Amino acid sequence: MKRYAVAAGLLAAGLALPAAAQVSGNVVKIGVLNDQSGVYADYGGKWSVEAAKMAVEDFGGKVLGAPIEIVSADHQNKPDIGSNIARQWFDVDGVDMISELTTSSVALAVQALAAEKHKVTITSGAVTADLTGKACSPTGFHWAFDTHALAVGTGGALVDQGGDTWFFLTADYAFGYSLEDQTTKFVTSKGGKVLGSVRHPLNTTDFSSFLLQAQASGAKVVGLANAGLDTANAIKQAAEFGIVAGGQKLAGLLFTLAEVHGLGLQAAQGLVLTEDFYWDRNDESRAFAQRFFARTQRMPNSVQASEYSSVLQYLKAVQAAGTDDGDKVAAKLKELPVDDVFAHGGKVQADGRMVHDMYLFQVKAPGDSTKPWDYYKQLATIPGDQAFLSAETSGCPATAKK
């Protein structure tokens, strides 16, 4: 009885009681929204959905006493479809957070919508640095690599190796523009020159005219500012045109383990690329990868490992906030350190950028690979504060230097 008397006294005095944990709808619902049937289906796709489910299972299946549910959908790389799905999820289906968001145009649209509705988005698949730059939002987060980090890694390495003239093959949408722009800035800052560029539609099957322009430019490096099957197709067709045999280097500015596997070591050997995760780096990454392989029959790439990390961290933030309220969870995401199989010593900046180390890799020749999925030789570690822009210099209006 004393407990209730004390509570009544507090209420009578106008003092608030400690808030109980609150979960809207008695369930925490996470949506994985990405390309599951198109050019980026292996890059993230249904494999990212499995990574999200692994995170939920590893967290224990519940948070604040409420069950955790994963839903997923294919946005087909179309911003209007992605936005319509996100609106349905938020307004009708009670989704608390949307993750992965492959394709920058989709990610930008969904992040803006989520901000209006005070919902969290955590992007792993899209790469434009604008997500935490000029298009940043209070509830939007970017977890995996971005165009700036890829430019610092792959672009910087090739200029240092003598690749001081570039020609770009660029995907004709926000991601491609951003990747070309960031790499151009880094190449020119190190004394290099860009001799030209050409833009191609998403999901291009015939790169012949674009590759002929690259070849005719005489550039030492042909920068592939695209991703997924577009990059793989460009590399295959470049071999047919004898571009590498003729002395030019190919730079896969966004190329992951999934695309290397699809292309094969014979075609991909020698490529320099940047990722923030490799399954065979250490015992911890190998243990995670083996669990992932048991579910999917493939090793995880950076996008899938990042998806696991982002969902796990979101659940930690919900637990710490005592609620699934988007604004409060976003605040906790910016406070909590990130320390898991994807990122050790990671930190989330005020602009929503999760800062962590990146790794420069070279694809092995077939004769140097000793086991299945043994594809990379690590060339360098790029510290997070070098790979990513600071909150003050990112271009985010809320964090820009005054």
Automatic annotation (TrEMBL):
Q: Which UniProt keywords apply?
A: Amino-acid transport, Signal, Transport
Report the residue ranges that make up the Leucine-binding protein domain in this protein: 28-365
Q: Which domain of life is it from?
A: Bacteria
Signal sequence span per UniProt?
1-21
Entry-linked SUPFAM superfamilies: Periplasmic binding protein-like I (SSF53822)
Give the CDD domains listed for this entry: PBP1_SBP-like (cd06327)
- What InterPro entries does the annotation carry? BCAA_transport, Leu-bd, Peripla_BP_I
**The keyword Ligase appears for this protein:** no
| Database matches in Pfam families | Peripla_BP_6
Which PANTHER family does this chain map to?
LEUCINE-SPECIFIC-BINDING PROTEIN, PERIPLASMIC BINDING PROTEIN OF ABC TRANSPORTER FOR NATURAL AMINO ACIDS
Entry's family note: Belongs to the leucine-binding protein family.
The entry's protein name is Branched-chain amino acid transport system substrate-binding protein
Species lineage: Bacteria, Pseudomonadati, Pseudomonadota, Alphaproteobacteria, Rhodospirillales
